[in-house]
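Backbones bend. Shown next:

***
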Amino acid sequence: MSLTSFLSFNPKKHIIFDLDETLAMLITDWESMLNHIYADLLKIDKEVVSVYTPSTMSYQLFNDLIKKHGQTVKKLLESHYQKAEGEDMKEVMSNPELINFVKNNSNYNYYIWSNNLRTTITKVLNSAGIIDKFTMIFAADDNLFYKPDTSGVEKILTGDKNGWLMIGDGENDRLGATALGIDFFLVDFFKK
């Protein structure tokens, strides 16, 4: 079902988008980044981290480690994301359906809630010509914890929660929407 069809059956006023693999796909060496994060996190908390592999680590694990070890873990993670989303970035592919939806539908309030960095989000939205359409951006470096933790983003939810929709590509987005008590729309554009 298309987003337009979904909204015709489920009217909304406020739409929260994820960034990577939703509005756009960031092409970088995520595997290498996760390998480096894993090695660094093992040095901080071998007992917790050793039961994972680089590919099975989750944002919930990152949040748990931040709760346990504080800013040390958050700064470490951000440094790896800065490299992956900065100097290692090869390409950004847009999702034309969603980009055009945002451009052509001014009757919604748009937000971004992403585990990507603010500089990355701003760059992608500027490049797509839609940054001025967004009321607010919640980036990884704006909050201590990563999505699906709702710290910070819950403050924007005003009025009836039935008027809100989260659009994303995966489980973190779905869990975040559930935690906020709002509807979720799955995007699979980049998985086809």
